[in-house]
Amino acid sequence: MSKPIQAIRGMNDILPSETAQWQQVEAVLRQTVASYGYSEIRFPIVEFTDLFKRSVGEVTDIVEKEMYTFEDRNGDSLSLRPEGTAVCVRAANQGALLYNQQQRLWYMGPMFRHERPQKGRYRQFHQFGVESYGFAGPDMDAEVIMLSARLWEAFGITEHLRLEINSLGTNEARAEYTVALVAFLEQHKDKLDEDSQRRLGTNPLRILDSKNPDVQALLESAPKLSEHLDEESVQMFEELKARLDAAGIKYVVNERLVRGLDYYNRTVFEWVTESLGSQGTVLAGGRYDGLVEQLGGKATPAVGFAMGIERFVLLLQTLDILKEPTSDADVYLVAAGKAAELKAVEIAEQLRHSAPSLRVVNHCGGGNFKKQMKRADKLGAQVALILGEDEVNNQQVTVKNLKVHGEQQTVAWADVASAVTAIID
Ligand code: ATP
Ligand code: MG
């Protein structure tokens, strides 16, 4: 026998026992965005590499080392999408949704990053995100944060997540701060690790995000971003905080929260949990007022977030919130003999027609009654419909309640649906 081909490392199958849990989560996501008036947008998985270079940024981890980039047969450089925000802007602009309009959009789907796979970090993972366009004020920042908070509330896990917020100011304020930060860090270069030294020349703000305790200690005495913010950004941040207070949403201001993507300005935020180890950021986002114009559209304010669905599902599993599926069928049809089998298929089709929400499974592959009843049990069916020679001759079906021992009755073909729905409510 030849060796079976394995999946690519970091790209996982989601098997049936888990898809049921994913569907539970997805249903809540859809319901939540609908309740805030957001519309779904779907866009391709592959885009021109330039889209991500020009938005996420040339010197970010994502573009520098995590993208799946390849040459198309006609020589174009394409990339599997590593995130949705840039693609959403591209699609919304191309679809003429942005000019002089306001949009509340959401998306869900796979993203690809060549990272080191570990718990909560994969090479193919899924994001659920919302993006809103045409709203410049902190009321919209507060709205998307409130929407995210509602997701935790829907599962009763609010206490397991912490909201961190920060303001990055305008691009000018951030540039001014970057100069001050670099000047300070240059003086203490010997205390920086290799990664931070490299970032000093490429993406200095990301040093604030360093996990190295020595670097963090050094940053205690570094200039603060908040001291360099422009007046309007300060005002907006205060208003956002007031709105979160009013909505009863707790937060902490984390002055070192900068996010790893270049397009953010002003508000940035993350929801973090302590329950997943080091991959604790479940949802992250912020404002990106410059991106639409940067990608060739007309200047449009924008704010949004993306959630890692794997991390959310992991968190819910860890907290034991998701229900395991208990059965794969409600009704199982058991039949012996050719005529009975044909009639069973017909009855099953009628049932699916009259009660579409019932899960109706026909036994396939023959075998005696005992074997067939075992299958019904295995699938967790609540009702077995049994057809043998006698039933066919009398134009009847035996209806057996599998959850109540010994409860069974024989009904006419025409009464099967009502007999079944009387048992299954
Ligand atoms: P991290 O700091 O964990 O690397 P990030 O800043 O790269 O996250 P974003 O690009 O903002 O993350 O993506 C938003 C969310 O998507 C993250 O908060 C996380 O939940 C999820 N996510 C990002 N990368 C991965 C991955 N490789 N595997 C699984 N989920 C991921
Ligand atoms: Mg990352």
Automatic annotation (TrEMBL):
Provide the Aminoacyl-transfer RNA synthetases class-II family profile domain boundaries: 1-325
Which HAMAP family does the record match to this protein? Answer: His_tRNA_synth
Q: Which organism is it from?
A: Psychrosphaera ytuae
Family of the protein in this entry: Belongs to the class-II aminoacyl-tRNA synthetase family.
**UniProt-listed CDD domains:** HisRS-like_core, HisRS_anticodon
MF terms from GO for this chain are: ATP binding; histidine-tRNA ligase activity
What sort of enzyme, by top EC class, is this? ligase
Q: EC number(s) per UniProt? A: 6.1.1.21
Report the superkingdom from the record: Bacteria
Q: So what does this thing catalyse? A: tRNA(His) + L-histidine + ATP = L-histidyl-tRNA(His) + AMP + diphosphate + H(+)
Q: Which GO terms describe its biological process?
A: histidyl-tRNA aminoacylation
Annotated Gene Ontology cellular components are: cytoplasm
The primary gene name is: hisS
The record's listing under Gene3D superfamilies reads: Anticodon-binding domain (3.40.50.800), Bira Bifunctional Protein, Domain 2 (3.30.930.10)
Q: What is its main location?
A: cytoplasm
| Keywords, alphabetical | Aminoacyl-tRNA synthetase, ATP-binding, Cytoplasm, Ligase, Nucleotide-binding, Protein biosynthesis
Protein localization: Cytoplasm
Q: How does it assemble?
A: Homodimer.
Positions of L-histidine binding = E83, G84, T85, R113, Q127, E131, R259, Y263, Y264
Q: Name one Pfam family in it.
A: HGTP_anticodon
Protein name listed in UniProt: Histidine--tRNA ligase
